[in-house]
Prior knowledge:
There is one protein chain. By secondary structure, the protein is an alpha+beta fold. The protein has one domain (6-184): Lipoprotein localisation LolA/LolB/LppX (outer membrane lipoprotein receptor (LolB), chain A). The protein has 3 helices and 11 strands. It has helices spanning 2-5, 12-31, 106-119, and strands at 34-44, 49-59, 62-69, 77-81, 84-89, 92-98, 122-128, 133-138, 149-156, 162-169, 172-184. Strands 6-5-4-3-2-1-11-10-9-8-7 form an 11-stranded antiparallel beta sheet. A hairpin with a 2-residue loop joins strand 4 and strand 5 (84-89). Helix 2 packs across helix 3. The model is unreliable at 1-8 and 94-101 (pLDDT under 50). This is Lipoprotein.
Amino acid sequence: MMILLLSACTGGAEGNEAEELALQIRGEYLAMSSCAGQAAITADYGQRVYQYELAVAVDGEETTLTLSAPDTVAGITARVTGQDGQLEYDGLSVETGPLDPEGLSPVSAVPALLEGARSGYIVSCALEEDGALLRMDCGDPEGTPGTGSEVSLWFDTSTHALSRGEISVDGFRAILCEFTDFAMS
Length: 185
């Protein structure tokens, strides 16, 4: 089944290497029980662009995001478990309700990127930056490129750490996440 998911990866020797690495990374992310790191997120809503910096911690089904920038929201924590999200600050919490499975927000971006790494339909993959990064593009196997929701992921080829992720909606990049200190277990 995985071979079918990779049928659109780059051809030739580089394509085979990219496909094998994509399969290996996918397996590692499927087996991963937790991960942590820092993320810089840019959310582009067309007329407005917001930038955030945050600490990311994923343990099983729970994702915890603690904002560190901008200063006006530093310390706010978002907890996402499945479809439920909760915002916390100084021990108080506010229920944000279920997340729309089709909706996209800075809070839902990291879980969506990790889901893409684990189970997104890989429409293409290639080695970039002289083989330092593996790029995996995930989308709808029946869809037209540039329509609907598409995820692009970049992994460090030596550590397999997620270094960058983008979520595009109808060909427009809505979310960019750049990761540092990403580690998984």
